[in-house]
Amino acid sequence: MRKHITELHKKGKSFREIGKILKLSFTTVGYIVKKYLETGYVENKPKPSDPSKLTSRAKRMIVKSAANKPMTSAQNIANELFFSLSLSSCNVSVPAQTVRNVLHSAGLKARTPRKKPYISEVNRKRRLEFAMQYKNKPMDF
């Protein structure tokens, strides 16, 4: 939409004409054109944010912990991180929501894996023997 406004402005259309074409107020069109002329961009600048409490190492530890133990909660990961990185001596705590944000940005979803049925050691050996017995058989036997 904003690029369309700048294109129409380059063609010589007035703010009011652009506003009527795109069904926007002429002041909105004016702000967008002014921003484009001053900066050369029409996108919004990213908002400044506080620096991250977590280092890249801590973020990697969170992702690794979640991958190794998929059934654990974000709160448990936060507690592990608190003690493993000696954050307790620095009086720095990591909220569970921060852990969730890190996991989300790493592409991990808030899902628990399906529970696998318990297979005893005896049954595991029997299943392996069965599979090995029929491993070399043709598919149509």
TrEMBL record:
GO CC term, one of those recorded: nucleus
Top-level taxon in the UniProt lineage: Eukaryota
GO molecular function, one term: DNA binding
One Pfam short name: HTH_Tnp_Tc3_2
Domain Sleeping Beauty transposase HTH: 1-42
InterPro entries the record matches: Homeodomain-like_sf (IPR009057), HTH_SB (IPR057667), Transposase_Tc1-like (IPR002492), WH-like_DNA-bd_sf (IPR036388)
SUPFAM superfamilies: Homeodomain-like
Cellular compartment(s): Nucleus
GO terms under biological process: DNA integration; DNA transposition
Domain Transposase Tc1-like: 59-136
UniProt-recorded name of the protein: Paired domain-containing protein
UniProt organism field: Trichonephila clavipes (Golden silk orbweaver)
Lineage: Eukaryota, Metazoa, Ecdysozoa, Arthropoda, Chelicerata
